[in-house]
Amino acid sequence: MNVLAVDIGGTNIKMSMVDSTGQTSAFKEIESGAKKGGQYLVDHLMEAIAETYSGFDAIGISTAGQVNSEEGSIIFANENFPGYTGMHVKALFEERFGVPVKVENDVNSAALGEKHFGAGQDFNDFLCLTYGTGIGGAIVIDSTVYKGMNGSAGEFGHMILHPDGLKCNCGCVGCYEMYGATTALVKNAMELNSKYINGRAIFEGLEQGDQQLEKVLNDWVLEVANGLVSLIHIFNPPAIIIGGGVMEQKKLVKAVSAKVQELVISSFTGVQIISATLGNKAGLLGAASLHLNK
Ligand SMILES: [Zn+2]
Prior knowledge:
By secondary structure, the chain is α/β, with parallel strands linked by helices. The chain is built from nine helices and twelve strands. Strand 5 and strand 6 form a beta hairpin. The structure holds zinc ion. The site of zinc ion has 5 residues, from loops.
């Protein structure tokens, strides 16, 4: 079976053909134009597909926003996607292309990608966290994503860890992602020196022996670990897969893992903290897996 996989983000849309072994081909990336509205996004995505691809048996779509995956509709999308909320993406694409279409939220798709083709292949149960602008999370139980009542389960970034702390975009105060996201690391590093504008600059600074920066990094590792420790105590998972920009640094994953093992209740220490392996292809492969592993 050949699946056309689509990964819709706020800035770009990625597309690829995926065969049943997870091999990708004919990768294409276009601007999403999400700001121009949901209808524009869907129309110009359909145009790009029709222009480039043929011979696919199904379409799997990973998308930003809260998704009703039974209906293949968008329950909620934020202000970066005006008019996308309420759109019946599955129905629109099935009508246009005449093949089965499945739709899943991007974070859940990435977790499914790791489950079927990446770091999660050996585990039936695991948690998946992505550290970027915020912290995305997914809960995989019995090889499927646990979704909760509204498809929103796994919002680990909004666990309240510092109730007297920083206000979060979600309206709560002291959320995990205000302290543990990559954005928080960069913000703290830039307070030391404005040249530390991203993960790469920070790692260069560490190589050059900036000791204050090392302290900033260690404090951040502790924040990341604190969130993970709480999750481990709740789920007692065999594995946690972590990914996102800076987490591609293996050293960092090791440091987080060591800190977690140090803090966690001793009977929970068997948990493995491992790196996501699919990088920015996780969403595409997860979208494909909606058809390939049913
Ligand atoms: Zn929050």
